Amino acid sequence: MLLGAPGAGKGTQAALLAKNLGVPHISTGDMFRAAKAMGSPMGVMARKYMDRGALVPDKVTIGIVEERLQRPDAARGWILDGFPRTAGQARALDDLLARLDQRLDAVAKLTVPREELIRRLTGRRVCPECGANYHVDSAPPARADVCDRCGHALEQREDDSETTVMHRLDVYHESTRPLIAFYEKKGLLHRVDGTMPVDAVNKAIMAAVAAPASTSVKAS
Q: How far apart, in Å, do the first and last CA atoms of the chain sit?
């Protein structure tokens, strides 16, 4: 399982882990979209809430997770990203894994200082025409504020403004504090320095998966 604030790099690391380990990257958004598309019983229930903009209840979310973990591609393992979000969901996941005779091997929490998260998130730019993504520092376009691919003016998403980013980080830290404590108490939590280069972070997470639980893992 991957934990980390917005901008910590979970998506990048999940893609690398899925490739390295040969297991699916399962994110909350992907699960909901797949369940809706398949028209599964839980997907139908979830759609009723999603279509009216309401939060999907935990019971339905757990049902969708159960459906997803029983698909053939998850037989050798999986990477959870975005679920669970609360200690209550974590306890429900424990019960689910016991029923499925599966287990959670490790929880990797990507730790990145708040100021760095703000820099990463507020520096993102997107092309509204073709969808290309940039960053003003780490991946800038050839011409400032102009898309390399189609020449359209780049934009900053509303949820990447500094005010919104700071609020998102506050909400994340408040909501996940009990979740982090839950997995730390179970001896599954590994804190990984998310400011290292991408390959070094990936190496550290792989070490966390392979090694006995500890409080922190760094690349060698």
A: 22
